[in-house]
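seq:
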Amino acid sequence: MTAFRAASSSLEGLRNTIRRTILVRRISLGMFCFVAAVVVLTSEISPLNPLFAIPFSWLVLTLPFEWLILRQRSVDGLHRVHAGFLGAEVLLVAFIVHRMGGVMWIGVVFYLYSVIYANFFLPKALGYTVTGLAVGSYTAVALMEFAGVLPHTPLFPVDTPLHRHFPYVITTVVVGGVGLYAALAFTVRAFAGMYERQERELVRRQDGLKRLSARLLSAQEEERRRIAGKLHDELGQLLAAGRWALASGEAAEAEKLMEQAIEGTRTLARDLRPPLLDELGVGPALRHLLERFQCSSGIRVEADLPEGHLPEPAQTAAFRVVQEALENVSRHARAQQVHTEVRRQGTMVIGCVADNGVGFAEGKVQEGLGLSGMREWIALAGGELNVTSSPGRGTQIKFRLPLP
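struct:
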């Protein structure tokens, strides 16, 4: 359960999981509606009887629920909408219990699905709240009917003993036996399937992290080698030449060499962490990065970037993803143009880097260190990243990052 919730903690992951539960619920309720329709057609029960009408209304209720789920922009929002829907289900079930005989029939088991969903998918407090609402509403209906506050409405108003009344027997067997437990088995298997998919995804991500860790160690060593080489071959030689120039009395030459050494040091520092990112924000830092990229690669650049700072960690994640994407374009894309976009949209940061290069066949090319690094930056910031590409049609990297 903990692993399932951890894997579903991202906004889109949780949204997709809830949408799968909507599908499961629709199939389960559809089975009930079908069984109820059979019972209605083979007995004297009216189609307006709650046995059919309420499960059908319950099925229709999933439509606005899914509409609300698709429009949430935070995990908390998804949980609140989900809890609200389950609460509405519980109240609907309480009405079913009242209209279908109160404590005299099997209506109490209809709370089962809402309680299972609530305690499987919602945070503990919300799960317990829905459970308490279920227990409280059933208790309230039973006590209010006992006290005469609510009129008792038997599902089968007949004088014959119920165990000898065929519509009651067949309805109880079909709905309470076949319908209920078939739907329950389907629901549990669907939950198990979702859990297994999440487990496989976790294993895949863990394996990917192990491979990424190995590649990062190699990249870290390569970066150290690059910095050491730059310090020794460039800065070291410039400082040594400056010292000899000073010793020879060539002050102008020494000053020139010192200026080159200082600029080299600044360039190295900018490569490691651009000061513009901290001083002016992601927009100016990316503009400077794109200018240098265009000068060094000759690739034409188009950009749509924000002004000012973005909250961390979204700001650093957005910068690093664009930086890695441009590095990939420079090394592999053979592109003539690249378009970069980063914008703030409500509570999200939306970004895209698209080139018109050679592209690649998705699924047939092993994911490299650059793309793996992008995914990890986005994951650390709680966002999502999508890569689309095809041979001859370029590559498009899109990402979404939540703002705190």
